[in-house]
Specification:
337 residues, alpha/beta, Rossmann fold, 2 domains, 5-stranded parallel sheet
């Protein structure tokens, strides 16, 4: 990284020494419109040229970059919660995995990145791989998903929101990253495809739904205002925790029984760190516990299975909406728009 900067400075001095003007058209190899300034999560990020050695620190960000056809400009990924989306598997296989979980800063720097992106401030921020000022001091621009900072009281994946998440935050992230990599047309095409898929999932479903992410003893359920809120709004259903402002409140099974959902959305997490991560563990508990076994959804075995990534603010939110829409049609709850 430092070596490249020294060489670049030397090249500039050589040009000036040869009588080249310091103010002229973009030099060969530099895209038009750069340097580019992108306002992101309260800071202005300056991109001198489209990145060629990007590292994405969360699965959501990785899948956006892969969807934009940028695998050849990525030198590392990290923090995976699920298998990569099937249509991206071939491209993903060409990009090194720096770590399945959160990598050390030294590991990231060893990849010699010229750009770093992330979905969550728990990864790109205090207590994460590094905070954004550290990367800036190292000359590496960074980008954090707007879904984890805009409209949130605290910038973390479980925090309270001051305003509900919408797909506009995700579309904005795609648009920003496409501009940064100078592939805006690809960004527009990806946004258009996601919008069409969301529209195809729209319906009116007179049904109460609950989203169980993980943990058996003090389970995390989807609150009103994160990705589960986007999903329920799309299919016209009711989230039984629409009255919360936390994205993932921890609740008791007695509260679940009192609200008694018609359908349970169950996250089948690839990680196996907490009781209730795996789908099989969730179903075994639901059908054997004296409280949960009496739930309407359990009695009727009305389960919609999703990946953990489908319940994060990302392009996978669209997958979650499609899976719930298909499940509600299967259970006979759907009234098409």
């Amino acid at each position: 990284m430092i070596g490249r900067r020294i060489l670049a400075a030397a090249a500039v001095l050589t040009l000036v020494g040869c009588g080249q003007s310091a103010v002229e058209a973009d030099p060969p190899g530099v895209a038009s419109g750069f340097p580019l300034t992108v306002h992101n999560c309260g800071r202005d990020v300056v991109i001198d040229a489209p990145p060629q050695r990007a590292v994405s620190l969360n699965q959501g960000s990785t899948e956006i970059l892969l969807s934009l056809g940028l695998a050849d400009r990525m030198v590392g990924t990290a923090t995976w919660t699920d298998p990569v989306r099937e249509n991206l598997a071939e491209a993903d296989a060409t990009v090194p995995k720096l770590a399945v979980n959160k990598p050390a800063l030294e590991t990231v720097l060893d990849a010699d990145p010229d750009f770093v992106s992330a979905s969550f401030s728990g990864t790109l921020g205090p207590g994460g791989v590094a905070d954004r000022d550290q990367f800036e001091d190292l000359g590496v621009p960074s980008y954090l998903a707007p879904s984890d900072c805009v409209g949130k009281v605290s910038a973390n994946s479980d925090g309270m929101r001051t305003e509900p998440l919408t797909m506009d935050a995700i579309y904005g992230e795609i648009r920003d990253l496409a501009r940064i990599f100078d592939v805006s047309e690809r960004g527009d095409a990806l946004i258009g495809e996601l919008q069409q898929r969301m529209e195809a999932s729209r319906m009116s479903a007179d049904v109460d739904v609950a989203f169980w992410f993980s943990d058996i003893r003090a389970p995390y359920f989807g609150g009103c205002c994160g990705a589960p809120g986007v999903i329920t709004d799309t299919v016209g259903a009711r989230n039984i925790f629409v009255d919360t402002t936390e994205e993932w409140p921890q609740v008791s099974w007695e509260v679940i029984a009192d609200r008694d959902p018609d359908v349970l959305v169950l996250a089948d997490l690839s990680r196996r760190t907490i009781d209730g991560d795996a789908l099989a563990a969730k179903i075994e508990f639901l059908e054997s516990n004296p409280v949960t076994s009496r739930l309407t959804a359990v009695q009727a075995k009305r389960y919609v299975v999703v990946n953990g990534a489908d319940l994060n603010p990302s392009i996978r939110t669209v997958d979650g909406a499609e899976k719930l829409a298909e499940g509600l049609r299967r259970f006979g709850f759907a009234s098409e728009h």
